[in-house]
Amino acid sequence: MYSFFESVYQVIAQIPYAKVASYGQIACLLGNPQQARTVGWALKKCPDGLPWHRVVKADGSLAAGEYVELQQAILCSEGVFFTPDGKVDMEVFQWDGSPLFFDS
DNA sequence: CCACTGACTAGAG
DNA sequence: TCTCTAGCCAGTG
Q1: Does an H or E element contain A22, and which?
Q2: CA A103 – C1' B12 distance (Å)?
Q3: FRET partner for A98 with CA separation of 20 to 30 A, picked from A9, A29, A38, A91?
Q4: Which residue is nearest to nucleotide B5 (CA to C1')?
């Protein structure tokens, strides 16, 4: 079952420690820069072992709905610093997409 | 098969 | 600079 969601999960699974990626960035890696919404919807499925906390909005703010504080807590635990605005410093922590491994 | 929803993004007021 | 609106695709009912 290699659906769009599966691709989303694989990409997110490749996000390295102490790094974050925006929905649009993930969508771009999948080849569809406009599908940021669909990516977020895939995150809502939230499969086991998926580092959904490493996925943030384009401006660096969190987007996990009611799990926002949980996401911030996990990211803080991973070593990601937050600005007083409650946003991630994208200039420092945004994933560049290098460690991608399109296996199988 | 048709319609609605959704953890977004970018542009305009 | 902040807030609001429109558009996008895939999945579920």
Answers
A1: strand A21-22
A2: 43
A3: A38
A4: A41
Identify the CATH number of the domain in which residue A28 sits: 1.10.10.10
What is the DSSP track for A37-78?
HHHHHHHHH--TT--GGGEE-TTSB---GGGHHHHHHHHHHH
Nearest-nucleotide field for A32 (CA, C1') = C9
Q: Backbone phi, then psi, for A3, in 5-degree steps? A: -90, 180
- A69: in domain: yes
- Through-space separation of residue A75 CA and nucleotide B6 C1' in angstroms: 24
Which nucleotide, over all strands, has the C1' atom closest to the CA of A23?
Answer: B8
pLDDT tens digits for range A31-90: 899 999 999 999 998 998 999 999 999 999 999 988 999 999 999 999 999 999 999 999
A87 has which bridge partners? A61
- Residue A18 domain-assigned (yes or no): yes
